[in-house]
Amino acid sequence: MIRVLELLTTTAVGGGPQQVRHLVSHLPAGEFVVVIAGPQEPGLAEPFRALHVETAPLALDTLRGFPLTLQRTVRLIRRARAHVVHTHGKGAGVYGRLAARLARVPAVHTFHGIHYESYSRAGQRVYLALERRLAAITHTVINVSASQEVEALALGVARADRSVVVLNGIDVDELTARSPATRAQLGLSDGTRVLGCVARFDPVKRHDALVRAFASIARRRPEVTLLLVGDGPERAGLAAQAAELGVAPDRIVTPGELAWTANPYPSMDLYVAASRKEGLPLAPLEAMASEIAVIATDVPGHRDVVEHGVTGLLVPYDHDAAMAGAIESLLDDPAGRRRMGQAGRARVLREFTTRTMAAKTADVYRAAAASR
Hints:
The protein is an alpha/beta fold. The chain is 43% helix and 18% strand.
C-alpha cells in the first residue's frame, strides 16, 4: 500500500483542488491511501468527505512563521507515514518539498500554471531561483499540459529527466450528474442568450477584458447577457467598470461561487475565457464536455484545450475587438456552435479523462515510492 500526502495551497473551489479531488477518486483504492492537507477552508473536507479521505488543516498559503509551518509539515508527513508527498501550488510547493526533504520522503510537484509575470523584476528573479532549487530536490515535476512543460524546462523549474506531462482530466459522468443551475437560480432572465465563464476573479483570468468585449456587443445585442461564475478580489471592481462602459447592471450577472455539486453550463450558449495564461484549465473542458463551443485567448493552456475552428475559436491575446468579433460570429452561427460543441465533447472523452490522468499519476507515485 502506497501512502500519499497531498498538500494544497488552497482548498477553495477551483482548478487545483478539483483536479486533486478527481485524482483521488480514481486512484486504485487497493493500492493507494491518500491524506489531504491544506488551509482550513470550507472546501477542505466537503469534497473529500464522500470519498472517505482523511483531511488535515495546514495553512500553506503564507510564508509568515516559516520555521513553525515547515516543522508542522514535517510532523504531518511523519504522522501520515507518507511514502510520497505531492504538492500543488506555490506555498505547498515550498513547504512540502522542503519538509519532504527533511523527512527523507520523495516529493512530486504539480504546476497548475506557472504564474510569476505580475511580480516585480526582483520578485521574478527570487521566484525562479527558488523554484530551480526546489526542482533539484523534487523526484518528479508534473506539468498539466505540453505547452507548460516547454515553459517549465526553458525556465529551469523542471528538469528533463524528472518532468512528465499529465493532462488534467474531468469526470464527465460526475459533471452530468450534478444538479443543473437553472437560469432563475443564477439570476438570468428567460430568453436571454448567455456568454458564460467559470473562474476565480483573479487578474490572470482577465475578467476586465471580457467586460470590455461584452460592452461593445451589448449595445448591438440587447438579448445577450454575460454570466461570470466565481469569486475573488477582482469581482468588486467589475460593476464599476461595467457602469463606466455604459453596461446596465442586469446585463452582467455574477452569482458568486457555486457548490461543488452545481452545474452552470446548461444555462450557457457560449463559453468565453480571456486569461493571460493557463496551465490547463478545467472549466473550458467542462464546457466542451457539455457540448458548448469555447472562445478563448490564444495563450498557453488554452491552445492545449481548444482546437481552433473545430471545438471553438482562439483569438489574439489582449485584443478586445477580436474577442467581440468571435463571439458575434458564433452567436450568428447556431449550426457552427452545435458542431463545435459536439467536437469538443468528443475531444474531452478522447483526451481529457480523469481515469487517464489518475493512471499516469499513479505511475509517478509508484516510481517515487520505489526510489525510497
